[in-house]
Amino acid sequence: MDPALHHPRPGPVFGAYPQREDERLPMLDRMLAGLEGGMRRLGNRLPMGRRGFLQAVARHEARLGALMPHEFRAEASAIRGELNRRGLHAAGIAQAFAATRVAAIRTLGMRHFDVQLTGGRILLSGRIAEMDTGEGKTLTATLPAVAAAFAGIPVHVVTVNDFLAGRDAGTMAPLYEALGLSTGLVLEGMGAEERRAAYGCDICYVTNKQLAFDYLKDRLILERETRKLHLDVEGLKDGTPRTGRALMRGLCFAIVDEADSCLIDEARTPLVISRPGDLSGMEETYRQAVSLARRLQAPRDFVISARDRRITVTDLGKAQIRWLSERWGGVWAAEVHREELAQQALTALHLYERDKHYILREGTIQIVDEYTGRIMGDRKWERGLHQMIEVKERVEITGRNETLARISYQRFFRRYLKVSGMTGTARELSGEFWSVYRLMVTRVPTNRPSRRRAEPRRHFATEAQKWQAIAARVADIHATGRPVLIGTRSVAASETLSDILAERGLRHRVLNARQDEHEAEIVAEAGQPGQITLATNMAGRGTDIKLGAGVAGAGGLFVLGSELHDSARIDRQLYGRCGRQGDPGGYAMMPSFEDEIIRETFGPRTARLASRLAGPGGEVPGLLARPVFRIAQAAAERRNSRLRRSLLKYDDTIDDLLAFSGQTE
Asked: Fewest C-beta in 10 Å: which of 67, 142, 243, 569?
């Protein structure tokens, strides 16, 4: 890393609104960089001098821990002054980590483990720290946050939702206050002045979505101007530079929690600032498009590619669209427009499913994030797709939004002068982290040996057979007094299984997009004796499941997966809910050949073939089933990777066009 970037803060070197110029790599270079990232994973090691660094922190901790509160505050101020003058040098970092450790003991009753100190050092060096679920990533983040803030660097601690941002900021604020640092928090619904004050704090907790949108707002204010000299001259001329109206102080240092979710999974969707457009004249067009699409027949008029989530209209279908729409006139008279409208309507009808991709809530379409299971209430699909789904579901049609600014997470986070991240599942993504963000992944050892135990995977021919087998397994585990957490991929699946469990008299709680406001409460109780919790992905991240009395002796929490996800690491996130910090725990996966991942890769006939090979209860021998599921999951991972690359390429193209026209972002 460039030595200058060890001190990336607003000032003479980086200007009033620091950020990195976007780096463009040609496709071949990006592919080579991905291979390089994968190779780096093989030889990646913990920081050099780790043992000596830990010993230095321990020595400073012994000295600082013996000080009275007012003496400790004065010593922390002295450490801050030293780092502010000299930047992030090794000796000063060791002192800052020691002060953070002492402050955590005094204010939170928690002491950073040595592995957390190692994780903090990795984060401060601008890498991804892979730390197992339950290893204390939230507390680990305080170490680099304090060291950077002592050096005068504005720190953004980025989380995946408002609940976690508020919880972490509230929990860690006393620690920061003991060290003389201020804590900011940005939440949905805050006004501009509140946001500006929060970003003005030494350390600001914020979600990735709020952060990126606030950056786009700043870009609209700055009108693409980020050059230090120009902004300085503007301030001298009229005394009110645009940077004074900006929400943030630039993109200096981000610590991204759940980095694979923020930087990879959500990178498939661009972030767009828009304003309501005019619906006049279009409402009837959307209704016509859906009505027309319902009259088209597959495979004569169109072909559905579930694997690529794409619909292709055939030549016969195009002729049918022309014939069905010829009396409507207007936009239907132009070939390109009528075919796009028809294709979007077909997509709304056949590729977007209720209670999977969206739910109906209070008469509106609410998008469900497929990776977290959470509602994305302020998002809409583009190019009329959202309105056509509203027609499909017979709810009030809302207006299409007019785009003011857009950016992808890839381009946004690459603009930070320094960015680092934490996650329990990063090694599979080492190549992509390096090729897109130039971030290396370093594995941090666990504080205690893992006692998590896996059961052999069981595969079933049909979904019905799978649900019955899962219900029977849950009943067996429940009888021992162990709590069970069952993971599903969709709202519909969770409700199907809920009905089956209820028929068997198994009391349980359901956590999906319909109950998202009760998430913390439901997850907090999931480790109690005999508790059965049925959850979509949202229960997989961010909140500890603490074991109730006697649960550890009974074997700990048991996690049961009902369907493979598009990536093996998301399955590992689910398994990581049990066996935290050396607790006992177990997990199993029980998928079927009718699951989405198999249908999209091999088609529906695979389930019929599996039924012929199945034994009692519909179970398919693992020797036959395992390769099929492994291939399907690998294919899904490749598809998602292609989607992210396509978005980044499209984003670059749009930016070039806007720059040529003189528009923002």
From this structure: 67
Q: Which residues pair with 207 in a beta bridge?
A: 159
The strand pair at 532-535 and 509-511 is best described as: parallel
CATH of domain 278-399: 3.90.1440.10
User: How many CB atoms neighbour CB 305 within 10 A?
Assistant: 11
Considering only the top CATH level, what class is 3-271+409-443?
Answer: alpha beta
- For 313-350, what is each residue's pLDDT tens digit? 999 999 999 999 988 988 898 888 889 999 999 999 99
Helical packing angle, 283-295 and 335-350, nearest 10°: 70
CB 123 within 8 A of CB 99: no
Q: Do 530 and 538 form a contact (C-beta atoms < 8 A)?
A: no
Mapping DSSP to helix (H, G, I), strand (E, B) and coil, where does residue 304 land? Answer: strand
116, 198, 204, 131: which is closest to 165 by C-alpha? 204
Q: Are 606 and 591 in contact (CB under 8 A)?
A: no
CATH superfamily of 451-633: P-loop containing nucleotide triphosphate hydrolases (3.40.50.300)
Residue 472 has pLDDT above 80, yes or no: yes
Domain boundaries in the chain? 3-271+409-443, 278-399, 451-633
Among 296-300, 411-415, 602-606, the range scoring the smallest mean pLDDT is 602-606
Contact 252, 155 (CB under 8 A): yes
Q: Kindly state the tokens that stand for 292.
A: 């027309």
**CB contact at 8 A, 290 and 349:** yes
Pick the closest to residue 520 from 535, 502, 501 (CA basis): 535
| End-to-end CA, the chain | 27
pLDDT in tens, 414-440: 999 999 999 988 888 888 899 889 899
Helices vs strands, H then E, count in the chain = 26, 22
pTM, entire model: 0.82
pLDDT surpasses 80 at 571: yes
Distance CA 351, CA 490 (A): 14
